[in-house]
Design goal:
Helix content: 25-40%
Bound molecules: the ligand N[C@@H](CCC(=O)N[C@@H](CSS)C(=O)NCC(=O)O)C(=O)O, fe (ii) ion
Structural class: alpha/beta
Shape: globular
Strand order of the largest sheet: 1-2-3-4-5-6
Distance between the termini: 59 Å
Number of domains: 1
CATH class: Alpha Beta
Strand content: 15-25%
Largest sheet: 6 strands, mixed
Order of helices and strands: EEEHEHEEEEEEHEHHEHHH
Number of strands: 12
Amino acid sequence: MSSVKNPLILRQLFHKETSTYTYLLACGNTKEAVLIDPVLDCVERDLKLLQELGVHLVYGMNTHVHADHITGTGKLKEALPDCKSVLGSKSGARADVYVAQDENVKFGNLALECRSTPGHTNGCTTYVLHEHEMAFTGDALLIRGCGRTDFQQGSPSVLFESVHSQIFSLPKHYKLYPAHDYKGVIFHIILLLLFLSMWHFFFPGFSVTTVEEELAHNTRLTKTKEEFIKIMDNLNLPYPKRLDESLPANLMCGVTDPVPS
Ligand SMILES: N[C@@H](CCC(=O)N[C@@H](CSS)C(=O)NCC(=O)O)C(=O)O
Ligand SMILES: [Fe+2]
């Protein structure tokens, strides 16, 4: 294990309605912070936390153009004018900073390396924090699963290559943090039927994994490429409930231009 020079403040936040994880990362020395995949509905929560921790948001970053929720980046920028939005250069959406393969996003003394991981969408980017041996995979890799490939330029073949070359090639002990966890949802439904509302207490789902765990236990990506393509082509998932509002808004950084009066 390499010695850690710069302390990291890390918070994993959850949006229950869309099972989305947002990550707050801040440099413990300088207090410069980034939010990865903020959700519009949770901006007030995130602003309060930034203030409580005494950190200064420099980037609102997205791993990709989300199809299931509206990004909070635009609203965060309105509240914090120093904050810039970051997105993969192949995303086709509006952002202040576009990142490509091997570029770094710096916050304080820490830096996130950008790895292009298309296949779920063209612009999908995995952000790697080498100093703390962790990566934020968006929807390219979910815990024991992966993002769907049936819309938004999705391609199972491209996703398979991305995950194997850019994520599974990281050291085996690296922690992987995804953009969603759907494992708790089944239990949620069962407990709702039992009129209980504390599902998260009993069945928290999964919050983090490692390269080693996914190489051994990912239900899709441990298969051959041919088997993987067959699985992905036959998922038959319903479209995300908020797709129609999310996609156009996220192409505009989560805010639509004001209508002239
Ligand atoms: N039911 C959810 C949407 C679920 C969904 O389609 N999730 C996406 C990631 S958000 S683009 C996905 O890739 N899922 C993979 C899988 O195996 O489930 C909603 O209505 O929001
Ligand atoms: Fe997605």
